[in-house]
Amino acid sequence: MGLNIRTMAVIAVLAVLLAGGMAVIFQQFVAGRSDQLLTSGGAIGAPFELVDHNGEPITEQAMEGRPVAVFFGFAHCPEVCPTTLYEMAGWLNALGEEGEEIGAFFVTVDPERDTPEIMRAYVTNFTDRITGITGDPEKVAALTKSWFVYSRKVPLDDGGYTMDHTASIYLVGRDGNFKGTIAYGENGETAVAKLRRLVKG
Amino acid sequence: MNSFFRNTVSALLISVLAVSVAGADDFAVGDLTIEHPYSRATPPNAPVSGGYLTIRNLGGETDRLLGGEAAFAGKVEIHEMTMDGDVMKMRKLDDGIEIPAGGSIELKPGGHHLMFMQLREPMRAGESRTATLLFERAGKIEVEFGVEEFGAGQKGHRSGN
Predict the structure, then answer these.
(1) Which one has a higher pLDDT value, A129 or A37?
(2) E strands, chain B, where?
(3) Does residue B157 belong to the interface with chain A, where contact is any CB pair within 8 Å?
């Protein structure tokens, strides 16, 4: 009986160690995978069914087979989002015909408040070259997750909320592989050079 | 010679005008001076906009910007924007911002800023909006925020004045 308990204790300890080890390995696998994605050009994104800023259905097909620049943000954002849209519009304008092929998208991380109407007014104020994407909150969440975008709702004390979110622009090549990012506040010339390289593939 | 004289006079006039325009940009209450308050044009339907300014404390005591109110916005709050890696975070500063005696603070894009929330109308470039700021010691002051073009205040570029 005593031996039995000791045996069981040993098995329990081994089980805990094994589980812990697996958790560590799993974490490293996940971290490693995301690092790899962010550096070496793996596939990014997943199929989705959402709506564009005109209220029309939009799927991953809008992003396939062309160089793509995607930014995730929200309309209740005074700083990063309008600035990024403004700058993106400027870069695309600077590229002119050379950048014509680039698909530029602004995906909301706040679909509950960002209706297609709000997205349309917000985005088209800056340019007609960027397409706003919103839709069912769960589907939007699935999309942001597939792009490894961080977003989190942060409550404000008046019952409202703001969003923490990844503020980089994601660049994806014609082959669907992740090519890098343009950071918030990045130098305009560098950004244009990155977009130019994206088009050249 | 005549045209030289004329040019000099117009240059002088222009600089006098420029100085008075810059002067109109500034506000004072108690020991505080407020310089170049501005906001930026917003897209239609944008619910929020930032307010930016420099506050100098010429007095010998610390003061604190506590908040404000404005007819054009449902709420005026003091927020801090930070970048945590590539993640943008924004937080309300419940205790406001301290303005040290003899010191100054700058509210600017990418850092501390006023948040004009629940905007009742879009901010249009070239217009101005009045807001009242509340300080712990200096009390209330009405300040006019000039609405600037969208790129205003980006990366050292400072328009206006």
Answers:
(1) A129
(2) 27-29, 32-40, 49-57, 63-70, 73-84, 87-92, 97-99, 104-107, 112-119, 128-135, 139-148
(3) no
Residue A185's SS3 state is: coil
**CA atoms of B124 and B142, how far apart (whole Å):** 20
Give the count of domains, chain B.
1
In a domain, B12, yes or no: no
Residue B31 lies in a domain: yes
Handedness of CA B122, B124, B128, B133 (dihedral sign): positive
Report the b/e string of A103-122 with b at 16+ CB within 10 A: bbbbbbbbbeebbbebbbbb
Domain with residue B69: its CATH number is 2.60.40.1890
* Complex ipTM over 0.85: no
Domain span at residue B43? Answer: 27-148
* C-alpha to C-alpha distance for B33 and B22, rounded to whole angstroms: 13
Token pair in block for residue B2: 């005549």
Residues B65-98 as b or e (16 or more Cβ within 10 Å = b) = bbbbebebbebbbbbebeeeebbbbbeeeeebee
Q: What are phi and psi of A114, to 5 degrees?
A: -90, 85
What is the model's pLDDT at position A200? 92
Between CA B145 and CA B35 the distance in angstroms is 10
Instruction: For residue B65, tell me if it sits in a domain.
Output: yes
The DSSP line for A76-120 is S-SSHHHHHHHHHHHHHHHHGGGGTT-EEEEEES-TTT--HHHHH
Distance, in Å, from the CA atom of A155 to the CA atom of B90, rounded to the nearest integer, reads: 11
Whether A42 and A48 have beta carbons less than 8 Å apart is answered as no
Quick one: pLDDT at residue A43? 83
Cβ of A161 under 8 Å from any chain B Cβ?
Answer: no
Note whether residue B19 is domain-resident: no
Higher pLDDT, A201 or B68: B68
Nearest to A125 among B43, B90, B154 (CB): B43
Q: Which of A74, A77, A81, A162 should one mutate to test binding to chain B, selecting the residue with the greatest count of B CBs within 10 A?
A: A162
